[in-house]
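FAQ: What does the model actually see?

It sees only this:
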Amino acid sequence: MITRIAARDDAPEVIPLLLEAIGSIAYLLTGASDEIEAAELLTTFYKQPGNRVSFDNVIVAEQEGRIAGMVVAYSGNDAGQLDEPFLAKLHGRPGKENSVIVREARDGEFYLDALAVDEQYRGQGIAKLLMAAAEQRAAQLGFERAALIVETYNERAYRLYLASGYEEDDMLRIGDSDYRRMVKRV
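And it is asked to produce this:
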């Protein structure tokens, strides 16, 4: 099992994982009305630099040439700028002209935006491996803290993050869901 920065060509394996990880946030980011449209729009963004889900913000875990999992992670300092392409797309859609994107990441921290492991690879420690890779990248870039959010009902992920050293520090409401905001010193 290796971890590496994703490539554009990884989109067919990364996008389903991304959709699974972000759930309804995919519709808020893209303005899509169904999963197929959301996947198409996220694929377009993934293949372009300069946005939150760009391949250059994705770390993948790879086993035997297959993507086993992925984490989207970036500087909280850049969060507003990374959301601008999404806002431009949203504002060009009828009825979405006044859309806003809730800022999840804060300045001074490295933000783990989305984490997912392919179903056939679950239970093998891949989520922990991906978090460690993102935290290592955070430290290399000079960050002292990593942060993430988790839906309040997702107890399994919440327990994983607690066990990995993350502590709850706030609550966020995004769309119709409540999220626990968690931080960790790296």
